[in-house]
From TrEMBL:
One of its GO terms (molecular function) is homoserine O-acetyltransferase activity. Keywords: Acyltransferase, Amino-acid biosynthesis, Cytoplasm, Methionine biosynthesis, Transferase. This is Homoserine O-acetyltransferase. It comes from Pontibacter ruber. Gene3D superfamilies: alpha/beta hydrolase (3.40.50.1820). Residues 41-325 form the AB hydrolase-1 domain. The gene is metX. It comes from the Bacteria. The lineage of its organism: Bacteria, Pseudomonadati, Bacteroidota, Cytophagia, Cytophagales.
Length: 352
């Protein structure tokens, strides 16, 4: 069974903005055992509203008789800094004030988040990671980390993500934050501040996570006489309420801003020069119906990372296809591993 742990860092932690945290903690999950050669490590980076238990949201990849069988692999995933599943975030107590941070929690970038991950990696004495894998926001973090620490990661599986967040993606995120700002409680110092706005933000997000086709297949009315109370309407409400029960507006705001600031070329002379630092053998994976991280973003990465591999998942689920189509993703990763000595592998029509 997966095991849950807490890593404590008790020194000042300087952020890219110039602000700092007086230490932090990361909740992390491990699965399997480290082998004698210490070369069977898989590190997972989760998406915006994910948690460290990858067997919960990526169950198709991890478990007995799965791609990453705990009898063979040692898998690690940490809840992101700024998160709300055990890691230090806005609802945590600020040691400087002995009160929750709330609105005073400093803004983070993906560089800050992976710097925290790397301190955990050092604590675990993992000098090399066989595969670093992440999707969406987690894919952004994985790419940034692999560029920061090119000698640590042997392979990178970058799923439904990008090298720089797009104006389209930023616009979606800002629209969600606008919804949070419209909540009259957002400016209060309360743990539940912005919770109603968060529901609307999630409903907006669903339109970027899914696709016209998936809504048509799952939310279409069965009859011809409906004039109100549509399935699609109740679905949006349900998704908003579901997230608000397990998340908070502070973390949603914070991590959506981290996503917006993602740009591996910042301070490195641009994207192409930054990507040249990458040493990991890399598989870029896109979803053919992804509206939020469209396939051209993964094609760009594939074109600018020599000897990288590329795969497309076919899905009606849009961006969420990276979580849904695990059988196709499993196949793509297996082929990536099996063709270690074949350069520039490209498989456009991955099928189950």
């Amino acid at each position: 069974m997966p095991e849950h742990h807490i890593f404590h860092y008790q020194q000042e932690f300087l952020l890219e903005s110039g602000a700092s945290l007086p230490g932090f903690q990361l909740t992390y999950t491990t699965y399997g055992q480290l082998n004698a050669r210490r070369d069977n490590v898989v590190w997972v980076c989760h998406a915006l509203t994910g948690n460290s238990d990858f067997t919960d949201w990526w169950a198709g990849l991890f478990g007995e008789d799965k791609l990453y069988n705990p009898a063979e692999w040692f898998v690690v995933c940490a809840n992101t800094l700024g998160g709300c599943y055990g890691s230090t975030g806005p609802l945590s107590i600020n040691p400087r004030t002995l009160k929750p941070y709330l609105h005073q929690f400093p803004q983070l970038t993906n560089r800050d988040i992976v710097a925290a991950f790397d301190l955990l990696r050092q604590e675990l004495e993992l000098e090399h990671v066989h595969t670093l894998i992440g999707g969406s926001l987690g894919g952004q973090q994985a790419l940034e980390w692999a560029i920061q620490k090119p000698d640590v990661f042997d392979r990178l599986v970058h799923v439904a993500s990008n090298a720089r967040h797009s104006p389209w993606g930023i616009a979606f995120n800002e629209s969600q934050r606008m919804a949070i700002r419209q909540d009259p409680t957002w400016l209060t110092d309360s743990e539940t501040a912005g919770s109603e706005g968060l529901k609307t933000a999630r409903a907006i997000a669903m339109l970027s996570y899914r696709h016209y086709t998936s809504y048509a297949k799952t939310q279409q009315e069965p009859g011809n006489s409906i004039t109100d109370d549509f399935r699609a309407s109740s679905y949006q409400v349900y998704q908003g309420e579901k997230l608000a029960k397990r998340f908070n507006a502070y973390t949603y705001w914070l991590l959506s801003k981290a996503m917006d600031s993602h740009h591996v070329g910042r301070g490195r002379g641009g994207l192409e020069k930054a990507l040249a630092h990458l040493k990991a053998r890399t598989l870029f994976v896109g979803v053919d119906s992804d509206l939020l991280f469209p396939v051209e973003e993964q094609r760009f990465l594939h074109a600018h990372v020599p000897d990288s591999c590329f795969a497309i998942l076919q899905s009606d689920y849009g961006h969420d296809g990276f979580l849904v189509e695990t059988a196709q993703l499993d196949q793509a990763i297996r082929e990536f591993y099996e063709t270690e000595h074949v350069s520039n592998l490209y498989y456009e029509n991955t099928e189950v």
